[in-house]
Amino acid sequence: MASGVRWCPQMPVLDINSFRARLRPGIAEAGFAICAGFAFLLVFKLVLRDVPATTYAARDDGVITLSHARNLVDYGFVGVNPSGERIEGFSAPLQFLVFAAVYAVTHVGYPRFLAGQVVLCTLLLGAGFFRLLRAAGADRVVALLGAAIAAGVLGSCGTFLLWHHSGMENALMHCCMVWLLALLVDACAGGKPSAALPLVAFAASIARIDAVFFVAPLMLVAVLLGPRTLLASALAWAIAWISFFSLRAWYFGGLQPNTAVAQQIDVAANLVSWLTGERLPASLTAFDQVVGRNPLWLALLAAPLLVVARRELPVLIGVRLCSLLILLCLAHPMLFGQARLDPARLTSFLAPVCVGLMLIVAVRTRFSAPVGLAVAAATMMPPFRAFLPGQLYEICCSSEAFEGVRAWATRTAAEHHIVRPLLANADLGAVSFSKELNVLDLGSLGSDVMSRVSGSRVLREWFFELAAPDLVEVHDYWWIKNSFLFNDPRFRQRYAVLDEHASPWFAQNAPLFQDGRSGRYLRRELMRDSTGPERRLHDAMAASPSVETLANELRTCDRGGAPACLYVLRTAYRFLPELSGRQGELEALFASASDARFRNWAMAVLRARRDGRLSRAVIAWSAGAHHGS
Question: Collapsing DSSP states into helix, strand and coil, what is residue 240?
Answer without folding.
Answer: helix
